[in-house]
Amino acid sequence: MKTEMAGIEIRDLHLSFGETRVLTGINLSIKPGEFFAFLGPSGSGKSTLLRAIAGFGPQPRGEILIGGRDIATLPPWKRDVGMVFQSYALWPHMSVRDNVAFGLEERKVPRAEIRTRVDEALALVGLSHLADRMPNQLSGGQQQRIALARTVVIEPKVLLLDEPLSNLDASLRVQMRRELLALQRKLGLTTIFVTHDQEEANTTSDRMAVLDGGVIQQIGTPQELYDRPVNLFVARFLGTANILEGRVEVEAGAARFRTATGDVLSLPVEGRAGPTSIVLRPQNIRIEEQAGAGTLPGEVLHREFLGSQVRYLVRAAGTEIVVDQSHRAGEIWLDPGARVHLAANTRDAVLIAQEG
Amino acid sequence: MTQGPQPSGRPMSLADRLPAFLFPRLSPIALVGLFIALILVGFLIYPVLQVIAVAFQNPVTGALTLENFGDFFNSSLFRQSFFNSFYVSALSVIVATVIALPLAYITTRFNFSGSILIQSLGFIPLIMPPFVGAVAMQLIFGRNGTINLLLRDHFGITIPFMEGLNGVILVQSIHYFPFILINLSASLRNIDRSMEEAAQNLGAHGLRLFRRIVFPLATPGYVAGAALVFIKVFDDLGTPLLLNVNNMLAPQAYLRITSVGLNDPMGYVISVILVAFSILSLWASFLVMRGKDYATVQKGGGGLAKRDLALREKILAYGVVLFILLIVLSPHIGLLLLSFGTIWSFAPLPDGYTLANYVRMWEGSQQYVMNTLLYAGIAATLDVIIGTAIAYIVLRTGIAGRKWLDYMATAALAVPGVVLGIGYLRTFQNVDVPLVGKPLASWWVIIAIALMIRRLPYALRACMAALQQVSLALEEAAESLGAGKFRTIRRIVVPLMAGGILAGFVTSFATAAVELSATIMLVSNDRDSPLAYGIYLFMQTPSGRGAGAALGVLAVVIVALGTVLSQIIIERDKKLRTAGRA
Amino acid sequence: MRKILKGTAAALVLTSTASMAWAEGSVVVVTSFPDDMTSVIEAAFEAAHPEYDLEILNRSTSSGVRYVQEIAANNTADIFWASAPDAFEVLKSNHLLAQAGIATEGIPDMIGAYPINDPDGYYYGFAASGYGIMWNTRYLSANGLEPAREWSDLARPEYYGHVGMSSPSRSGTTHLTVETVLQGEGWEAGWSEWKWIAGNFASVTERSFGVPDGVNTGNFGLGIVIDFFGFSSQASGFPVEFAYPTVTALVPANVGVIENAPNPEGARAFVEFLLSPAGQQTLFDPAIMRLPVNPAAYDAAPEGLPNPFEDTSLGAEVLFDVDTSGARYYVVSSLFDVLITYRLDDLRAAVRAVQLAEERHADGSNAEAMALIAEARALIDAMPITEEQSLDPAFSGAFTATRRAASDQVEQRQAELEQQWDAFATQNYARARELADRAAAM
């Protein structure tokens, strides 16, 4: 099964449901063969954007180019975009084989070829032996694979996955996302994956776009987004983030961060003066027993043992800060109520200037 | 769940000391079930058996025999009647489908402002009172009806719409297509939107999409509606009789049973065959639908995407809808003309118009209207109560034999009204009602009971569907918070089923209000007569036709108003619930 | 909402139970007469006897008989009131009528050739009716037809598809009409006439009032009806007319007191009122238009209503024999249905084929064709049983309601007989059509 690789280009896309604006000013460029994720909370517009690419929902304003061709005004059945639905949408009145063959039949592919291609597709997802079952005789994971086979068998230019793993249980989800990635790599299909789960997005995608309120907040690789979020939303949405409010003060070329409670952290030089938030990841904060330069005094409120790590919730600088300490055997843990001092590795911190 | 462990520590009563199989401990719900079973046996099974027993007796000696059935199958007339009934039923299903499909499709698939029109008008054909429907159809489509007179004058041709079996098929499909429309629309609305989108995504659209995906997914609803139409047409005798078509099974049964003084068992044999064939058809439709309860396997829901229509499409849609409505409402148009007309004889339209028919109708009919409201109201109320109880027992309990309640109640569909009426006369004429001093068969309550039994299947299906949509978790939540079974049913289950129960009530009420076949045998007193009987009285005199039609119009208006009112309540209820969910 | 519903239901129950109170003086009347007629007489009766309250129960004659039979075990009806004397004969033979012993002075024994009252005193004639032909004038002129005046006219080819009639098994009056012709013209000739008329049928209606209905609306042009249907349709303003053919019987419409009636005094009062001069006058109401049995009543007769006691030609042609009619009642009904009603399409096709063949060979010069036509006619005419058989009690026993001991042997069951007749008819009609078609092709 081979697919000609096509990139996706979205230019200035706007979409409203009646009076409600759902997507605003979407600009996006996805490279051929890329595994791309739309990540966002529910209501962020990520599914609406995916459906707009497939041609479902209200007609958007703007351009959607696939392989350089604008498909924004084409009906769904002329787009050559394969979509796997959250509910799988396997037709219950057709056998597995008939489900998978459907798209080929619609394309008037000769019967013999349909047979071989359906067999190939079922083999690809490892379910050849279930060809004659009805969908309601399959488990959730099997239905998922059949839905995938049904979509890829038509060799679409791009593959759209709408929360494909959300109906599976946790262990299956991890296994399926690996299989999905392996399949995508094998087929070289340009793929968009919609999810609200950052772990799913991080583990599968080459790059992703974080959406909120119908606007793309940031586009980048998982690492870029995690390490250098451009705003607090992205920072919070990707991983656990401790955010301290305060100001950056620049004095004689040295920058300092003064929290609302008056505590001071020293900063690398790049900080700009003004009201700012500082984002500190839990693993970039150490717990010290002694106060030192730029440490914040605090009190342990709560402790969770996560196996490889011990997570403390510490009240400091007028807020609650999550600190992860890697765990070594026999280590003595701090108990709630313990007085501690937090030292931040500000080199790994992200400064986000507050607007207004 | 019905037979909990015996509470210990209580003093042994006499019943406790008797062997358990003599007095099995029944939970209150099982007792309710038993009570309903007794009602069904007493007012349906036993009276019907009283009648059809004749089919198994030698007419002379009274000995048990099957020779009557041999006579049935040896008779070419009966074989032909059987074939005609089958043919008419099958073709009525097809024609009704042709009428219902575009209406269901347009209302469920498009943002179409005429949908409300279809929803409300689509129900009206069901409430056409007997006798008048066929009369009005003759006036419009008959050999010398409006259409054919105009065609003859202008084009010199006529079309035999109403000749022989054609007429029966036309009238029946116009009368019963709402069963398909209602069920099919509901099914279409329940289809998970992604089912359709997946197909579009894979390249299907338009009619192919409809044929390969949408319609197959709606088949359970369609089959349910079509089976109902098939059985109703198969069992119906009013329409063929009015159109003077005798060579069908139901009219043959009726003609033979009601002939003066004859002791011919063939009428009863045909009744048995009607009942058996109807049950067979129901069973076949259950078989077809088994394992195809697609509604429950679909998760997303939300119904099919509705599309806006382009102007040209809108004109086309309105054209199709109005054309179909014009045809299906033609009996009502004819009825209206007849009620306002003076003399209507061999002319496209009445000679003149008058209100005199309404005046005459009103003078003599108020009692009929009151009686109808009373009987149909009692019947429909009992129907939804029993329907809810049966639905609960069948779907939510493990009481042994609970399915039989469903089967028995549904079997009423297959019993021709005349058979039930005669059965009641045979069974209850000797049962005197205390205080009233009349036999039960002559007491007006028996009419309400007959209507209740006849319409129970409709209410039961509506209640079943409503209960299926109530999540078991909601009940369990109430029970875990300490509410007993009956309190849970009353405070949680019934309110959540309200929309469905009301729909059942309306269907039962509306169709009971115009029922005649069973009541005509049971009306024992002019003052106890329901409306349909009043129409029947009016319509048999030349001067009473207009007044009869006026009474028919009144019946349609009353029932339609009730339907619209409850539609509004159902809609409001639905909104309330969706608001609660969001 | 629930409260309102409850309130309304309660109000409904109250009002209707109040109205359904069982009046002390109520007289329950089972009748086949239309509301138009009963309401006029009811009003007159209740005016004359305010102590009684008439309860009308409308049934077709046949289901009325069935109803009285079914409720006999615990009878609640007082009066049976209908046209067809045969229905009364059935009730009488089932011992469901009482001998009321009502005086009938001033009323002659016979009307035309028919006895007015049951000689045994079980039922009484209160009005006379004759049978005839009604037609729609608009329909006939649109189709360029003349009205038919005699039964035999109705068999003429120009009336093909224009005639309507009910069936004797459905309507007591129709049964009388059929029997009148059979007695007037003889078994073979009578049946032949009926079949050739039936060949012109548009339809066989299920109820007797279906015929005036069909003529009034113009669904078909001519109908075979009892006179008052014609008169009252005319009185209602429909463009229809009515005529008595020469062969007709004037037969009384009857009333009888049901055995074991709950209100025998009231029942007697009603019958006496019907036969009284005041009761007889009500028959001239435009909605009723029946002929009184009391000659004195004719002084006030409206114009156009014949007086059978003076116009002796009316109905005098046939001496109607009730015993003959009663003896073969079911056989005639069943024969008519099997040979005509249920096989109307086959019969019409055969008759039409003969009509066309005769038109083709109107000059009669083609002897071979004429022979074929004659053969076809004979096939249509042929009857499966003879008049003697029809009157043989052993034969008609297959149709009767009385159940005998198992030792009594009845030759055949009704279903078997009907199947034989059906096979006979379909075969003959098909063959006749084939012969006539062959003749027409010559």
Automatic annotation (TrEMBL), chain A:
Domain ABC transporter: residue ranges: 8-238
Keyword ATP-binding: yes
Family matches, as InterPro entries: AAA+_ATPase (IPR003593), ABC_SmlMolc_Importer (IPR050093), ABC_transporter-like_ATP-bd (IPR003439), ABC_transporter-like_CS (IPR017871), Mo/tungstate-bd_C_term_dom (IPR008995), P-loop_NTPase (IPR027417), Transp-assoc_OB_typ2 (IPR013611)
GO function terms (MF aspect): ABC-type transporter activity; ATP binding; ATP hydrolysis activity
Stated name of the protein: Polyamine ABC transporter ATP-binding protein
NAD recorded as keyword: no
Keywords tagged on the record: ATP-binding, Nucleotide-binding, Transport
Similarity-based family: Belongs to the ABC transporter superfamily.
Entry GO CC: ATP-binding cassette (ABC) transporter complex
Tree of life domain: Bacteria
From TrEMBL, chain B:
GO CC, any one term: plasma membrane
Membrane topology category: Multi-pass membrane protein
Family label: Belongs to the binding-protein-dependent transport system permease family.
Subcellular location: Cell inner membrane; Cell membrane
Pfam family, one: BPD_transp_1
Name of this protein: ABC transporter permease
A biological process from GO: transmembrane transport
Main localization of the protein described in the UniProt heading: membrane
Transmembrane segments: 21-46, 86-106, 118-141, 169-188, 209-231, 268-289, 315-347, 373-395, 407-428, 440-457, 492-514, 547-570
Keyword annotations: Cell inner membrane, Cell membrane, Membrane, Transmembrane, Transmembrane helix, Transport
UniProt keyword annotation of Ribosomal protein present: no
Gene3D superfamilies, A to Z: MetI-like
InterPro entries: MetI-like, MetI-like_sf
ABC transmembrane type-1 domain span: 82-281, 369-566
From TrEMBL, chain C:
Keywords: Signal
PANTHER family reported for this sequence: SLL0237 PROTEIN (PTHR30006:SF24), THIAMINE-BINDING PERIPLASMIC PROTEIN-RELATED (PTHR30006)
Matching Pfam families: SBP_bac_6 (PF13343)
Spans traversing the lipid bilayer: none
Taxonomic superkingdom: Bacteria
Protein name: ABC transporter substrate-binding protein
Record bears the keyword Signal: yes
Annotated signal sequence range: 1-23
